[in-house]
Amino acid sequence: MINDQIEEFLNYLAVERGLAQNTLLAYRRDLLKYAAFLKECRVNDAAQASRKMVTDFMYAQKEKNLSTNSICRALAAIKTFHRFLVRERMADEDPTNLVETPKLWKRVPEVLSAHEIEAIIEAAQGRHWQAVRDHAILELFYASGMRVSELSDLRMENIDLEVGYVRCLGKGSKERIIPIGRRAKQAVSRYCQKVRVKLAKGQEPEHLFLSRLGRRISRQSIWKIIKLYARKANVKKEIKPHTLRHTFATHLLENGADLRSVQEMLGHADISTTQIYTHVDRERLKAVHKEFHPRG
Fold first, then answer.
1. Which of 28, 58, 141, 246 has its CB 3.0 to 4.6 Å from that of 109, i.e. a possible disulfide?
2. Active site (annotated) includes residue 183
3. At 171, is the secondary structure helix, strand, or coil?
4. pLDDT of 203-212, one tens digit each?
5. Of 154-158, 235-239, 256-260, 285-289, the least confident
6. Residue 196 pLDDT > 50, yes or no?
7. Does 97 or 116 have the greater pLDDT score?
8. Which CATH superfamily includes the segment(s) 114-289?
9. Could you state, in order of their start, the residue ranges of all structural domains in the chain?
10. In the annotation, is 171 catalytic?
């Protein structure tokens, strides 16, 4: 029975919420593990699951040495699943209501300081075609907070430099509009006028950022670009593909942006995903207090 409930839930995610195939596969994997665990507890109906069973499942995953990310992702899938069952009146109660991811398991994303991100962007200044392109990539990445894949897939028709926005197609083919600032507009405009035309080699490629062969620049290449200029700027922090995205969100919240607006710009379906950045901000404040308060 529980497997039928999972299939109905996945169908809802695909049809009603339009989630991407990779996301659906991840949900399926996590929920089938959960179903197998419940069956070991002699429960074949998800409506009979208890809060303790959910918690025990999480700790069982931890004992299998699963990463914090994997455990948190599985819990998010289970919570969404149980909320669906209650909403569809297939269950009376949601056992995950009071289940929280232990703070110990939450992995706070690494973010760059304002000084560090400025140094990385400045390191890409130059007249060579590659520097002009890379500078535009870094400026737009930090200005928009797009995912690396979204930046790689960005098409010319989806950026308006006059008004100052990008139209981004995110997970589940959901479209969102992200405003971009003066510096990003200037850097992208310079790249389009002086470099992109040459890289296109007389063709009319759809994508904004091109490789030296005139093709769409890959996600891996963008990641290498970020790491290259981080080294040049002598930034010692570990740089990952989403570091600039995390930095974008954290800096917005630090400067007073509201959580809902940041959620919309990031393209998060659930605001709880965006709330991790408020935790980043709290950790930063604690560090500042500890360093500068006389009795810190």
1. 246
2. no
3. helix
4. 989 999 999 9
5. 285-289
6. yes
7. 116
8. Intergrase catalytic core (1.10.443.10)
9. 2-98, 114-289
10. yes
Assigned token pair, 66: 């699963």
Could you tell me the pTM of the whole model? 0.63
| pLDDT at residue 7 in the model | 93
Q: Mind listing the pLDDT tens digit for each residue in 27-68?
A: 999 999 999 999 999 999 999 999 889 888 888 888 887 777
User: Of residues 27, 142, 191, 277, which has the active-site annotation?
Assistant: 277
Distance CA 70, CA 80 (A): 15
DSSP 206: S
Pick the CATH number of 2-98 from 2.170.150.70, 1.10.3710.10, 1.10.150.130, 3.55.50.30: 1.10.150.130
- Whole-angstrom Cα distance, residue 271 to residue 263? 6
Query: How crowded is residue 233: how many other Cβ atoms within 10 Å of its Cβ?
Result: 19
Tell me how far CA of residue 132 lies from CA of 1, 192, 204, in angstroms. 58, 9, 20
Place of tokens 């109905």: 8
Of the candidates 171, 183, 219, 279, the residue annotated as catalytic is 171
Phi-psi region of 42 (alpha: psi -120 to 50; beta: other; left: phi over 0): left
- The verdict on whether 268 is a catalytic residue reads yes
279: annotated active-site residue: no
Annotated catalytic residue, options 28, 190, 242, 284: 242
pLDDT at 104: 44
